[in-house]
Design goal:
Elements (H helix, E strand, L loop, with lengths): L2 H27 L23 E3 L19 H4 L6 E3 L1 H16 L16 E3 L5 E5 L4 H6 L6 H12 L7 E5 L13 H18 L3 E5 L1 H7 L12 H4 L4 E3 L3 E6 L2 H6 L4 H14 L12
Helix pairs in contact: 1-5, 3-6
Bound molecules: iron/sulfur cluster.
Length: 290
């Protein structure tokens, strides 16, 4: 058999697997229909289609500083992202590569003692949409990539159901090393590692961020020290927030939680549909009379 036929067979196999994943997620989340092709909203259009890709790289805050919206910020304010200035994407991508190298040798916090390897990101650093989770688990620690275990497979199905390819999004975590026994990262560990996430987000400069779970939400919104006084993910999911006063953030449940509580998939799908609308994608329409 020729190489071309093998490649075609592999592509068809991948397509069938993706379609199956999409159908499984749509069925499990209560959604019906298929997402329509990408339709970019004028305000959501990427900068690279214009003169230059807007970003905050050139004016990004010092590492570790945040200006996140406080919990009491109004919904209207939380959806009014500020325009971004053009930037040299080549510089940003080169810095992302060097940042990943820095992270590999990081010993800023005790999590460095337990890792097999650091877990920086996967996906497209030019993505319009970024997903942020908590931290690596056992599978991620072994492979050096985020969201590659069972929760990651579910996340991939969610992304596919939204009409995005896995090469159209960027996925990373609040902490880059696996906490022992998959416990939550401690506040001091989050503080040590968050500067890396802030710089990743300044460099990727997405239009929308999805915060997967409470740890991602409090890390992105600078609520690490709020402790129990921070609003819970159950209360805040589905409501738009702002990351550093400029990038809309949609908090939703972590895919690992969905594996334990599949009845929550419908709420997550509602949150992801809000993200799709914000990015100019039409969510699947419910069947009439269904
Ligand atoms: S978790 Fe982050 S801060 Fe801690 S050692 Fe790993 S890379 Fe460094």
């Amino acid at each position: 058999m020729s190489d071309g036929a093998d490649e075609l067979r592999a592509e068809l196999h991948d397509l069938a697997a993706q379609t199956l994943a999409l159908v499984e997620w749509l069925g499990a989340s209560g959604a019906e229909g298929l997402p329509t092709a990408a339709r970019r909203a004028p305000q959501a259009r990427r900068g690279e289609e214009q003169a230059g890709r807007p970003t905050a790289v050139s004016a990004r805050p010092a590492l570790g500083t945040t200006e996140a919206a406080p919990p009491a910020r109004s919904a209207a304010a939380a959806t009014a992202a500020t325009p971004r200035a053009p930037v040299d994407r080549a510089d940003a991508l080169a810095r992302l590569v060097s940042l990943e190298h820095e992270v590999r040798s990081c010993v800023r916090c005790p999590l460095s003692q337990h890792r097999t390897q650091t877990v920086f990101a996967r996906g497209n650093p030019n993505a319009r949409l970024v997903f942020v989770g908590e931290g690596p688990g056992a599978e991620e620690d072994a492979q050096g990539l985020p969201f590659v275990g069972a929760a990651g497979q579910l996340l991939d199905r969610m992304i596919t159901a939204m009409g995005f390819g896995l090469d159209e999004v960027y996925i990373c975590n609040v902490v880059k090393c696996r906490p022992p026994s998959n416990r939550k990262p401690e506040p001091q560990e989050m503080h040590a590692c968050l500067p890396y996430l802030h710089e990743q987000l300044a460099l990727t400069n997405p239009e929308v961020i999805v915060a997967l779970g409470a740890t991602a939400m409090v890390g992105l919104l600078d609520w690490v020290d709020a402790g129990a006084s921070a609003p819970g993910i159950s209360r805040l999911r589905g409501t738009w927030k702002l990351y550093q006063g400029r990038i809309p953030v949609m908090p939703t449940f972590h895919p690992a939680y969905l594996l334990r509580s599949p009845d929550k998939k419908r709420e997550v799908w509602s949150d992801l549909q809000a993200v799709m609308r914000r990015m100019g994608r039409e969510p699947p329409r419910p069947k009439q009379g269904g």
